[in-house]
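W.,

You were right to be curious about this one. When I first looked at the sequence I had no strong expectations either way, so I just let the prediction run and decided to look at it fresh. Below is the sequence, 332 residues in total, followed by the output.
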Amino acid sequence: MRVTFPHMGTLWLVLRALLENFGHTVVVPPAISSHTISLGARHSPECVCLPFKVNMGNFLEAAALGADTVVMAGGAGPCRLGFYATSQLEILRDLGIDLKMLVLEPPKNSVWELGGIISPLTNGATTVELVRNLHFAFELCKALDRVERTLSELRAVQATPVACDRAWEKALHLFGQVRDVSHLRQTEHQATELLSKVQRRDTAEPLRVALVGEIYVLIEPSVNLHLEKRLGDMGVAVFRSTYVSDWVSAHLIPNPRALLYARKLKSKARPYLRGFVGGHGLETIGKSVIYGEQGVWHHSGHAANLYAGDCSAEHFTNGEPAFRGADYDAGV
């Protein structure tokens, strides 16, 4: 199989490593560009959400490079993510493009179901190899997110505007070479060292902005117009509410801590939104309240609510931030 997948932040590094460890040829889609978006939009329903259109562009560009199989996440509930694969497969067939679609649905009862869900991709790997490869992929995901969290705060105080960008590019190159846990720790240390060498300027406490909203728009820089970088270059410390490993912990490899946090989000959001509306509407409100309680919004703090165009859940919650901001004396 020549396998591809949609872009979403640093997820491509994790999926490439995982699939190569299972012996597949990986076709990484070109970086998202205006051509990607226009191509996907041209072949998508007009009123479908933006992530659908960008994903379509990824698949069409990857197919042109020889990909024959797509791996993507599934979903449930009001969010239209659960319909992506079926709809996109029909569109691709209408265009005469023969791509297989493998959808990774969240386990319903136990994390051990994950082995069965990804079995079409394992190439006959043993149970030991399966566990080892999944463990490495999850650890790589978490390591990338830890370094990126540091990067988002460091940009606000970097002495040279491009210093963080150069360090991040070198870090991504290092992470891209790793294929096992034994070398991952050393690579993360090297990446952290690269960031620690970035010169900092003496400055007063920077303006702080918490980014909340729909996960895809939060994580994919090409879709949010590189908002984190632009804010950081302006001297703003950014606190992004969601990273790739957060989604994996909550949906693919659930753990007690993630489940408890999900309950906490529902509790915090209840005064403003009582039920699940799909997308990340409930999480958007719950995390905004938590940021307010943690003091992120104090001392000139603000929150930015990013939502995907035509995302029904985010339209539903778009009217709520003003109430949340008023409660914590913050701009939204």
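Here's what jumped out at me. Strands lie at 2-4, 25-26, 69-73, 100-104, 208-213, 237-240, 301-306. And, maybe more interesting for your project: The chain has a mean pLDDT of 87.

Coffee later to discuss?

I.
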